Amino acid sequence: MASNYLNILADIKARFDAISDIGIVHDYERLTKNWQEFLALFAYTPDGGNQQIRGWEITRRSVPEHKRGAYYRHHVFIVRGYLSLKDSDATDKTFQILVDTICETFRAVGEVSTWYYRDGENPENSPCQVDLIEPRMFGGVLCHYCEITLYVTEWIVPT
After folding, report:
1. In terms of CB atoms within 10 Å, which end of the chain has fewer, N or C?
2. Could you tell me if 115 and 155 are in contact, meaning their C-beta atoms sit under 8 angstroms apart?
3. Handedness of CA 133, 107, 13, 19 (dihedral sign)
C-alpha cells in the first residue's frame, strides 16, 4: 500500500483553506535564510483590512504505527500559526478565534477515506491540542504565535 501521507496533508490543507480569512496556508515547514523572505511567505490582506502577517505551516512531527487486529498509523502533525500583533486592533482576539475555528473544524470531521481526525492512542482527546499561544518576534515583527498538534489515525488497508 502506498502512503496516504500526501492525501491526508491535502485534506488538512483544504480544511484550513475553507476557513474564512485564515491567511496563507503552507502544507510544509517554510525555511529561509532571510527574515524578509520568511515574512513575505505569510503576507496576507484580510477582507477590508491592511496587509499583515497571517499564516500557517503544517508538517508532520511523528508517525508511530502498531497492530491491534489491523495496522494503524498515528500521524502527529504540528501546525504553527502567525499573526501580526497590533494592540489597537485587538489582534489577540482575532488570533484566538482563528485557533478555536481550526479546532472546531477538525473536531467536527468524521471518517475520511481510511483515516480519522482523532488521537488513536488516546481517543478521548480531541484531534487538535493547542500546545502554545504566545507573542514572538519574527524579523522585527511582533506576532501572535501558536503551535497546534493535530492527530490523525489511519487504518492501513492491505493491498
Report:
1. C
2. yes
3. negative
The CA distances from residue 11 to 15, 58, 91, 137, in Å, are 6, 12, 28, 30
**Number of C-alpha atoms within 13 angstroms, CB side, residue 48?**
1
pLDDT, position 3: 73
- How far apart are alpha carbons 8 and 75 in whole angstroms? 9
Check: pTM over 0.70? Answer yes or no.
yes
As a whole number of angstroms, the distance between CA 77 and CA 146 comes to 13
Cell of 130: 493547542
Do 32 and 38 touch, CB atoms closer than 8 A? Answer: yes
Q: CATH topology for 5-155?
A: STM4215-like (3.30.2000)
d(CA 31, CA 42): 12
Contact 85, 142 (CB under 8 A): yes
